[in-house]
Design goal:
The complex is a heterodimer of chains A (156) and B (120). Chain A has 156 residues and is α/β, with parallel strands linked by helices. Chain A folds into two domains: 1-46, no CATH class; 51-153, STAS domain (Transcription Regulator spoIIAA, 2-Layer Sandwich), CATH 3.30.750.24. Chain A contains three helices and six strands; from the N terminus they run βββαβαβαβ. Chain A has a five-stranded mixed sheet. In chain A, a hairpin with a 2-residue loop joins strand 2 and strand 3 (61-70). The radius of gyration of chain A is 20 Å and the shape is globular. The chains are: A alpha/beta (156), B alpha+beta (120). Chain A binds chain B through residues 1-2, 8, 15-16, 22, 24, 33-44, 46-50, 69, 71-73, 99, 101-103, 105-106, 109-110, 113, 131, 134-135, 138-141, 144, and chain B through 6-13, 15-21, 23-25, 28-29, 32, 41, 44-45, 48-49, 51-52, 55-56, 61, 87-92, 94, 97, 100-101. Strand 1 of chain A pairs antiparallel with strand 1 (6-13) of chain B.
Chain lengths: 156, 120
């Protein structure tokens, strides 16, 4: 265990709004069954959903710019936005996504299939070395999803 | 990476909003162990997948333990539930995804142990 931090029986905190400072470092709160740990100190606010989605139009393309983390908690927000789009092709710009897991990726592929069912396209705008490209490669989805590097590359 | 054995653990409720907490924790624990950023990114994804599996499996809480020594790291998780479910429309299952990131063993008690080397 890290020197200077407290042991397993010493602390626990509730999350997040009540204790936005995080947990795990020298607190004296009683264990309440919610969060318990030792050895590290998360420094950012915990438990909050970190995702924003900005919609714009480029020619006939619906462009959704996604910023933040796509996981089990936040993925339904993207699903809702994709499902609510009108007719026309979709560019999903994920260059500002800082984390994505299979929950988020499932929404992306569902969006691709939804667009195809309408006779439209969904393309993903992703950095070559970003987290979205990485998990698409790990799962083999890079072979099934159209990926471009910039919205400047959208077909006109 | 440190050669002195270290161990960090965390228990969180199986609430989807706690996935971010899990990732922040594992990243900071990994840095404390002296792991590189590539290993930390693997740990963030591993922790998130284990957590999501636990939530969808109906667990009440998850306990994860990250330990390391000079040779490598181990992320152990309790409360994950069965790993045999597919991932919706994704072409691979959860266990396949985990195994693309680390060596994975599932114990008789359901504890999932993911291990990786010290170097990126």
């Amino acid at each position: 265990m890290v020197e200077g931090l407290i042991g397993p029986s010493a602390h626990a905190r509730r999350y997040p709004a009540e204790h936005p400072e995080g947990f795990g470092s020298g607190g004296t709160g009683d264990y309440d069954g919610d969060v318990f740990g030792h050895g590290t100190t998360p420094t950012r606010e915990t438990g909050a959903i970190d995702l924003t989605i900005a919609a714009s139009q480029e020619g006939r393309w619906h462009v959704l710019g996604v910023t933040g983390e796509l996981d089990l908690a936040s993925a339904p927000m993207l699903d809702q936005r994709l499902a609510g789009l009108g007719s026309g092709p979709v560019a999903l710009d994920v260059r500002e996504v800082t984390f994505i897991d299979s929950s988020g990726l499932s929404i992306v592929i569902a969006g691709v299939h939804r667009a195809r069912d309408r006779g439209e396209r969904l393309v993903v705008v992703a950095e070559e070395d970003g987290p979205v490209q990485r998990i698409m490669t790990l799962t083999g989805l890079d072979q099934l999803i159209d990926v471009i590097r910039s919205t400047d590359d959208l077909p006109r | 990476m440190t050669t002195r054995p270290e161990r960090h653990d965390l228990t969180v409720p199986a609430d989807p909003a706690m996935g971010a907490t899990m990732r922040v924790w594992v990243a900071e624990a990994g840095r404390t162990l002296g792991l590189g950023e590539a290993a930390i990114e693997d740990l963030r994804l591993l922790a998130s997948e284990l957590f999501a599996n636990g939530v969808t499996a109906g667990s009440h809480r998850l306990t994860v333990t990250l330990s390391g020594n000079g040779a490598g790291w181990e992320l152990a998780a309790e409360g994950v539930g069965p790993l045999d479910a597919d991932l919706g429309e994704l072409p691979i299952g959860r266990l396949d995804l985990l195994r693309s990131l680390a060596e994975v063993e599932v114990g008789a008690d359901g504890t999932v142990r993911c291990t990786g080397p010290a170097s990126d």
